[in-house]
Amino acid sequence: MRVSAAARAAIGAALDAIIREEQVAILFAVESGSRAWGFPSPDSDWDVRFVYARPTAWHITLTPGRDTLERSLPGDIDLAGWDARKALNLLLNGNAALREWLRSPILYCADSAMLAEFRALADALPARAAARHHYRAVIRQISSRYLDGRAVVNLKKYLYVVRPALALRWLREHPEGEPPMDMPALLAEVTLDAAARADLDGLLVRKAEAAELGEGARLARLDALVADEIEAAAAMPDEPRDAPGAAAAALALYRRATAHADAVLA
């Protein structure tokens, strides 16, 4: 996925400002949303997501501080970050959004050792059952708000239900691992009949040419794909969700992240 030099510079400057103003160490920062998913509009926002660590002194207070940081900046740059403790607790609970961040094809910055440790912990945790529940919930939420009962729909929202349906198909067709985050990689690794693939390819072309509010007709074959995968996912048995020693490993990683913040902010 290409990011223009100007966009990358603006995002880098915004992340540097957060480091200075908040006195945090950013462990990794990635792109999320339609740009990372592989179907941006010409006017898509930049959805920058990051995990950061605070130094030890920040934790030794009577009043707990906020565990999230947000900035909305000119140039349609939206930044949102989670403190490492929050992120690790979410990771232990199978949070699919964070796991997607760890697989994003667009990486803005990272401490390579910290990112590798987060990925290794994610790989050690069972998450397929949580992923199925997450993707089904996304489909239902988006459908009920933007699609149900409408023949003409927002193309962006339409793809927001097709992508998780393809992720559900990936989970059904692959006995191990997690689905790719982006649409091109998903399409390369799932079975899709030629007619449905042609419909989806056409939808992606229209989405790439349309503004964020661009609309188009629903497609029966894609609607059927979404419905089929929701039903198939409901019938699949849940896998284990716990891993022995995971909580201790997450705590150790959090301590290393805090020590890393102490070192880089000294």
In short:
This protein is an alpha+beta fold and 266 residues long. The chain folds into two domains: 5-125 and 242-265, Beta Polymerase, domain 2; 128-235.
Description of the structure:
Pfam families: RlaP. The structure is a single chain. This protein is of the alpha+beta class. It has two domains: about 5-125 and about 240-265, Beta Polymerase, domain 2 (2-Layer Sandwich); about 130-235. The chain has twelve helices and seven strands. It has helices at about 5-20, 35, 55-60, 85-90, 95-100, 110-125, 130-145, 155-175, 185-190, 195-210, 220-235, 245-265, and strands spanning about 25-30, 45-55, 70-75, 75-85, 105-110, 150-155, 215. Strands 3-4-2-1-5 form a five-stranded mixed sheet, with helices on both faces. Strands 6-7 form a two-stranded antiparallel sheet.
